[in-house]
Inverse folding.
């Protein structure tokens, strides 16, 4: 395989707080290929947002501290100067966030902001920039783009603002789009529009997308590959079909169980996230895991093991000489081959 | 209760409970009432029965004539004790938390220590140290360890060495031209400062909070009217008003406190109003409203306590202004010259600055430190009591 | 038990006046809730679903009189008030909107509410125990120990421990706070709980916990629930019946299974099709709702959904592709609103060779509104071309007039009546009315 578009190795982000250091992301690695969508899935507090913000170092430093390697098209982002990094942020990697209204300047028209973003990176005349901005607005599905060019952000609805944000992210023709819960604040109908749009744009621009969400429904629709995070560590990774049809890690299984359409588990996952100041020994999920045994509670997070091509899991039950069949048997999951959803109707 | 199983919420007979209703007073209010009633009775007795010249406590012994300002002061002290100090004890966990937050700010801890000295000195000092008395013969005594040329002093209390009058422990901070002891002047000045601080704060807080919350909850034209009135209050020339009253009626400390407090609550009211409005948008206020609680109860139990941290901070920062105003007026010779305030002391020494600087410096430094301490304290309280920061640090 | 509903809402309206000028003259009203009605049977869970801004939360706070409804009737038969019949003047003695202060306070014991944001639903300066106990205190239970015993027992019942009584809200996670919120809503032993998006702010794993807790409590204490959510999968999980709201009105109501399996209103259909299914092999249903929810100040005439409906009815004699029809109507509305600016379109077209011609603008207009290059019906095509020509000639008004004259839909003219599809399953869509008209008695109930 050629070098991936984005390669993250042993990424570790620590925040110094009044109560001591807090390691939000604790040595994770993953990669995103061109034209591929990778979803980072996890509950709030799992460190997924911090992980994405550490990539282009938009996480606040200090109190944050980012260590590890992040290679974008072979160049290490973490050793770059602020100036070089700014080039990458605008030109190679674009970010969209959960709350579009906070990411816009309310004093300027939407079109002006897009045109300006364009002119920062490319030397184009005003008229051309304007035309391109209208084109982008139209591209992201703003009806009547040429007229709405001169509207101010407050005249747009939440979904439209997110579209504008996407348009802004597209001006520099990015190779990688990092989308941090871009649809969580939106209505389902609008969410469907945005997801469809991202899909179309990905085909058109051949972007890699790194998508952060806790909504497994969205993941199933958009992801090619999935990285499951829990308490700052990667629990499991694999293709979307592997994860949904044969989840291997007990945490992934529990998470899927909580989705009404899949799981029979109606009680959620017992217990709470571990204290990030003092994570437990061994597997981070062990304290809440029903398969946990003594080995799980000592040492560090278990090494990742291949369970099927492309699917790796950090769980001792898959070590050589162990029998994971119990985990396999009780696993939830979408039935492979079926087109509908394995229903959990009463 | 231990013998029977706990009652379950769905077995409560509400029809019975809602029939038997009686007014439920908190321990704080009961204490306050119990303490304030005797005070009120004494005050009434003083006002109606005793003639003006008889000191209030003469029948019991000490010749202390309790004045209006003193009654007010005692009343505010009671309020302070029952509604600020007592709750701190009733809620030790919360207090510990505040203290932990507060402790981070070193200057503020020192400030608090200083203010405690002023507070204790102001309340108990006058009982042990008699008020400074005029004694022309022992004027201009230097503070201990210092000396002054003998020609300035008519009678030197201490030794005279090399024609220099030496200070003594009898007057540790020296005396004024009139022979008043500066140290006892400062101690009695603490009382005055505490009186100014406590009484104005109470008046400002009462009017400000009432006005602010009523305005916020009334809404509509009532709100509009009340806020325009606040504008008037805020733009009123308080000093001119005070001077006017001074020339027409003559003014003592009481008048000073009343006039200045009466025009200082505008900011507080405005602040409380905006704070109440934002708090009343919170979901817990909605939850309380559908609990069936009256608006008064919601405001009293939830809105005001949640606004309290910022109100307390704001009030703490108001006090230095009053103390300074008093000192300034006294310095200009417009204050009440019968009271032993720091300002009066400073004003008494201003013409002798060249050879007897202690008369101005000693109370001046004390005043400066007190004002600084209030400012530090206000700042630290803002950080320690801020509920948002609290949630984040938790 | 009688089959009398515990809550019966009829024609409930909540309008927010819009005032302008120095005399605060009312110039209009935002019709957040505009004449909704539903019943909730004892022990039943009714879901109220819709996009943000459709008025579902306003409906909830009007029902519970957190806000004063503008009009309508909310009959609450819980609290032992059942069996009452209407007075001679037509008013109902159990009408919450007419309750006196004393009755209202009693009503508070019968109906309680849970809110969306666990972070702000507790007073940060009060222990959670006293926050729950305060409910008892407000209603006159003056014995502190009795209050504490009841609340501690209840905290255990919702999955916390008695020691949690003395802890402060910030010491709890979002899910735990929502449990305490449930305890606070329950402590007065109400018959009805209104839950306003109670799990929207929580993670999936916690959502599942809270939902199953709600389920258990409902069975144990025979509660009725009005459950408000924008999340269809949550609704499906917990509700017996569901009412779909759009722009202040209920467009469809029916048993959850039936509504999910066989949605009758196009809006329900669109809403359902946009839920992402957690199955990587299936794709999202694909009905894309264009545009945004119109302003409730000036809602569209007729059926309020007609401005976005993918099934908007073509008048007699018109038969074009449905998506073209939608595009034409969108075009008509934008022209009428003066929002189609030919000059800026012209300005923004980049042509590689030569100046921009009128044809470019024509093509651009059609792309922007998703209208085919040539529409099947020649008469329609002619009118459309005519209108575009007028636009190009700068006569916007004439274009608007022509378009609104020629392109009309019955949906904009007639307010749809409720159509009954099966017992309990009703919707308001003109398509069903015409179907019923052609097949009389088919849907008789």
């Amino acid at each position: 395989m050629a070098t991936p578009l984005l390669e993250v190795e042993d990424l570790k982000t620590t925040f110094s707080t009044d109560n001591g250091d807090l390691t939000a992301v604790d040595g994770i690695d993953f990669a995103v290929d061109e034209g591929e969508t990778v979803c980072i899935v996890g509950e709030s507090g799992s460190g997924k947002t911090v992980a994405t913000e550490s990539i282009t170092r938009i996480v606040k430093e200090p109190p944050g501290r980012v260590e590890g390697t992040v290679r974008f098209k072979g160049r290490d982002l973490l050793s770059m100067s602020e100036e070089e990094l700014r080039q990458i942020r605008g030109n190679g990697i674009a970010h969209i966030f959960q709350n579009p209204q906070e990411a816009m300047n309310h004093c300027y028209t939407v079109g002006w902001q897009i045109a300006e973003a364009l002119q920062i990176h490319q030397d184009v005349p005003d008229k051309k920039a304007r035309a391109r901005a209208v084109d982008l607005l139209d591209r992201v599905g703003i009806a009547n783009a040429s007229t709405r060019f001169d509207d101010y952000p407050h005249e747009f609805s939440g979904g439209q603002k997110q579209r504008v944000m996407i348009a802004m992210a597209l001006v520099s023709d990015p190779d990688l789009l990092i989308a941090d819960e871009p649809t969580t604040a939106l209505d389902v109908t609008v969410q469907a529009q945005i997801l469809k749009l991202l899909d179309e744009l990905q085909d058109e621009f051949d972007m890699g997308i790194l998508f952060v969400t806790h909504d497994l429904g969205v993941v199933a629709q958009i992801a090619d590959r999935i990285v499951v995070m829990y308490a700052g560590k990667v629990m499991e990774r694999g293709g979307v079909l592997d994860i949904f049809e044969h989840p291997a890690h007990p945490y992934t299984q529990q998470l899927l169980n909580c989705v009404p359409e899949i799981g029979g588990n109606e009680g959620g996952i017992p217990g709470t996230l571990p204290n990030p100041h003092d994570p437990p020994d061994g597997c981070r999920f062990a304290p809440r895991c029903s398969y946990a045994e003594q080995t799980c509670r000592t040492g560090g997070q278990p090494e990742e093991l291949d369970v099927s091509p492309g699917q790796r899991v950090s769980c001792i039950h898959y070590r050589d000489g162990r029998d994971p069949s119990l985990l396999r048997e009780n696993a939830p999951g979408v039935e492979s081959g079926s087109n509908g959803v394995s229903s959990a109707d009463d | 209760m231990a013998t029977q199983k706990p009652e379950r919420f769905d077995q409560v007979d509400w029809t019975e409970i809602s029939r038997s209703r009686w007014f439920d007073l908190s321990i704080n209010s009961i204490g306050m009432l119990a303490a304030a009633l005797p005070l009120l009775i004494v005050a009434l007795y003083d006002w109606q029965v005793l003639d003006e010249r008889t000191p209030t406590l003469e029948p019991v012994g000490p010749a202390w004539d309790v004045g209006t300002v003193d009654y007010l002061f005692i009343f505010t002290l009671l309020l302070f004790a029952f509604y600020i100090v007592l709750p701190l004890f009733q809620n030790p966990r919360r207090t510990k938390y505040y203290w932990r937050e507060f402790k981070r700010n070193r200057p503020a801890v020192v400030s608090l220590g200083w203010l405690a000295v002023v507070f204790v000195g102001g309340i108990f000092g006058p009982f042990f140290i008699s008020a400074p008395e005029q004694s022309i013969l022992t004027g201009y005594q230097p503070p201990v360890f210092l000396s002054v040329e003998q020609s300035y002093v008519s009678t030197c209390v201490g030794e005279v060495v090399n024609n220099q009058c030496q200070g003594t422990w009898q007057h540790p901070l020296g005396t004024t031209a009139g022979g008043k002891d500066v140290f006892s002047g400062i101690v009695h000045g603490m009382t005055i400062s505490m009186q100014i601080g406590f009484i104005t704060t109470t008046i400002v807080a009462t009017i400000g909070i009432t006005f602010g919350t009523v305005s916020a909850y009334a809404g509509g034209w009532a709100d509009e009217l009340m806020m325009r009135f606040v504008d008037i209050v805020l733009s009123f020339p308080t000093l001119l008003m005070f001077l006017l009253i001074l020339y027409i009626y003559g003014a003592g400390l009481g008048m000073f406190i009343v006039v200045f407090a009466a025009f200082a609550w505008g900011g507080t009211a405005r602040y409380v109003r905006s704070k109440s409005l934002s708090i009343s948008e919170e979901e817990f206020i909605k939850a309380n409203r559908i609990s069936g609680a009256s608006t008064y109860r919601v405001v009293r139990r939830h809105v005001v306590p949640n606004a309290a941290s910022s109100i307390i901070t704001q009030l703490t920062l108001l006090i230095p202004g009053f103390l300074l105003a008093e000192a300034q007026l006294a310095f200009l010779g417009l204050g009440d010259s019968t009271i032993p305030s720091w300002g009066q002391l400073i004003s008494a020494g201003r013409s002798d600055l060249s050879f007897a600087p202690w008369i101005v410096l000693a109370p001046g430094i004390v005043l400066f430190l007190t004002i600084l301490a209030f400012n530090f304290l206000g700042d630290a309280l803002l950080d320690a009591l801020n509920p948002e920061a609290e949630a984040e640090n938790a | 038990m009688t089959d009398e509903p515990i809550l019966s809402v009829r024609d409930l309206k909540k309008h927010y006046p819009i005032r302008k000028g120095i005399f605060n003259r009312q110039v209009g009203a935002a019709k957040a809730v505009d004449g909704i009605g539903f019943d909730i049977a004892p022990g039943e869970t009714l879901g109220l679903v819709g996009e943000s801004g459709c008025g579902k939360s306003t409906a909830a706070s009007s029902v519970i009189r957190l806000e004063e409804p503008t009009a309508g009737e909310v009959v609450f038969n819980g609290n032992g008030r059942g069996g009452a019949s209407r007075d001679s003047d037509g008013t109902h003695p159990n009408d919450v909107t007419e309750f006196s202060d004393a009755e209202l306070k009693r009503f508070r014991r019968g109906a309680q509410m849970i809110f969306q944001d666990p972070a702000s639903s507790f007073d940060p300066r009060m222990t959670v125990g006293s926050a729950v106990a305060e409910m008892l205190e407000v209603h006159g239970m003056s014995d502190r120990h009795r209050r504490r015993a009841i609340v501690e027992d209840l905290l255990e019942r919702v999955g916390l421990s008695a020691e949690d009584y003395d802890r402060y809200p910030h010491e709890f996670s979002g899910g735990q706070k929502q449990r305490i919120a449930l305890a606070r809503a329950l402590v007065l032993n109400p018959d009805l709980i209104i839950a306003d998006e109670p799990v929207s702010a929580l993670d999936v794993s916690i959502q599942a916990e809270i939902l199953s807790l709600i389920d258990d409590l409902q069975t144990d204490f025979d509660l009725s629930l009005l459950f408000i959510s924008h999340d269809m999968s949550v609704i499906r999980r917990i509700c017996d019946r569901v009412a779909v709201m759009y722009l202040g009105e209920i467009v469809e109501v029916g048993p959850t299974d039936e509504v999910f399996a066989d949605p009758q209103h196009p809006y329900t259909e669109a809403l359902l099709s946009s839920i992402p299914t957690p199955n990587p092999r299936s794709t999202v249903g694909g009905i894309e709702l264009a545009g945004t929810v119109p302003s409730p100040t000036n809602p569209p005439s007729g059926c309020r959904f007609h401005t976005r409906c993918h099934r908007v009815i073509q008048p007699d004699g018109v038969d074009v592709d449905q998506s073209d029809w939608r595009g034409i109507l969108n075009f008509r509305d934008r022209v009428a609103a003066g929002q189609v600016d030919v000059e800026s379109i012209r300005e923004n077209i980049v042509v590689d060779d030569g100046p921009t011609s009128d044809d470019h603008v024509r093509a651009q207009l059609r792309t922007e509104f998703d209208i085919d290059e040539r529409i099947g019906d020649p008469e329609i095509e002619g009118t459309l071309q005519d209108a575009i020509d007028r636009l190009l000639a700068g006569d916007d008004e004439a274009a608007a007039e022509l378009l609104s004259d020629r392109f009309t839909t019955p949906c904009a003219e007639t307010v749809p009546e409720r159509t009954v599809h099966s017992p309990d399953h009703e919707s308001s869509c003109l398509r069903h009315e015409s179907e019923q008209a052609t097949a009389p008695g088919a849907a008789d109930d």
The longest strand of chain B covers residues 147-149. The CA atoms of residues 224 and 391 of chain B lie 34 Å apart. Chain B is about 65% helix and 0% strand. Chain B touches chain A at residues 393 (CB under 8 Å).
